[in-house]
Amino acid sequence: MAKFSENLKKLRVQKDISQEELAKAAGVHVTHISRYERGISAPSLDVAQKIAKKLDIFIDELVHGDSTAKMEQVIKDRDLLNMFKKAQILNDKQKDCMKEFLSAFLLKADVQKQLA
């Protein structure tokens, strides 16, 4: 729950949204937002979804934190991580091409591994 409270406050401040504004959007009293941010209580799933919507994020970002930080924990190779970050700005056709190439490369590597 500590991670949720930290993420909530950080994201709310980054997006320049007051506790009052967030409370109104979530349909709760402002003291509830304060309690969530201090880790004293946790919102219901419905309230958390409304909070995420107001913050313009997915609910898992409230729970787990920034997706970039999560990727950095999973992908240890910095060059590969940077390539994936750059791929995010490609258009859909380019992304599909990249996915097909990567799938073919991984399939080849799997076949070579099985044959070895």
Give a nutshell description of this structure.
The chain has 116 residues and is mostly helical. It is built from 8 helices and no strands.
Please describe the structure with a list of short key phrases separated by commas or semicolons:
mainly alpha, 434 Repressor (Amino-terminal Domain), about 120 residues, about 75% helix, 8 helices
Percent helix? over 70%
What does the average pLDDT come to? Answer: 89
CATH superfamily of the largest domain: lambda repressor-like DNA-binding domains
CATH architecture of the largest domain: Orthogonal Bundle
What class, by secondary structure content? mainly alpha
Distance between the termini: 47 Å
Number of helices: 8
Within the CATH hierarchy, at the fold level, what is the topology of the largest domain? 434 Repressor (Amino-terminal Domain)
Strand count, sense and barrel status of the largest sheet are: none
Task: Assign an overall shape.
Answer: elongated
By DSSP, the count of extended strands is 0
Uncertain runs are: none
